[in-house]
Design brief:
Layout lengths: L4 H7 L18 H4 L3 E2 L7 E2 L4 E3 L12 E12 L8 E9 L6 E8 L6 E10 L2 E8 L2 E8 L11 E10 L2 E12 L8 E9 L2 E2 L7 E5 L2 E5 L4 E7 L7 E2 L3 E2 L6 H15 L1 E7 L2 E8 L2 E11 L2
Antiparallel strand pairs: 1-2, 3-4, 4-5, 5-6, 6-7, 8-9, 9-10, 10-11, 12-13, 12-14, 12-21, 14-15, 15-16, 16-17, 16-18, 19-20, 20-21
Amino acid sequence: MHRNPLQHLLATLVTACIGAPASGIAAPSVETTGNIPYSGIYDAPAQLLDGVYEDEPFVPEGAARPRVELLADLYATGDIDGDGVEDAWVLLNENAGGTGQILYLAAVSEASGHPRNLGTIAIGDRVKVMGLEAEDGRATLTYVAAGPDEPACCPTQMISGVYGLEDGTLAELSREELGTLTPDHLQGATWRLDRFAWSEPVSEGISITAVFEGDRVSGSAGCNSYFATVSAPTPYDLTIGPAGTTRMACPAPQAAAEDRYLQALENSTQYSFVLGKLAISYRLDEVHETLMFERMEAD
């Protein structure tokens, strides 16, 4: 399949360890990065415990309080400080009880077996992360942010930022604006269904995929192959028509998953990105839910 340069860039953004460390020392684990202090967010370092930091309420007995959470679903490793030891890039979400959700990128060093935060930098409010990769001591974060005249709730401007240490400080080294988010950015990859809803993973042994090409989506519905038309008149809006399928008889678990998936697709309303995953929202029987897909390389 032919892919334009932007599709190729997005398809290479993965959440994986980049090779084995030459030193033999493993990079900080996700669990480790969730139990260290992070500077650069508040005046004093925020000490995470099991991935969360919470301070006292702003007002006694009030609900609003400083809160930082490690976003453990997206994590990349590489030698950030040039000491030959694998380090980690992690994402943090800061929220003080209002609508703002400030995303931070942080670098964590594993020097001498004592993980520490090398630096933290703010990315933006309510940005939607499409991917994170690490290479040559730098991190590339691709995300969707609000443009100059857009509300923070509904960003459409795609940005690729490169981050690294500069004179010992974590900084944005370069930034490229990639244009407005469109359904074309769903193309160039195979998306594998990970969850039927936020808290409901797909059962083991069931493989459901989606490949977007032009105004069509196709793939495996869990047993049969399917295809359907796609309409997306504005950023985030998404409508998928009734699906055509092959007619192979399927075992009961696969058949049930297939029926549920196709019904969800036909009731889709929006698409978005959440920590490198494709999220397709749907409304069924007055219930709003979200299909979550992981990116795979296209054949």
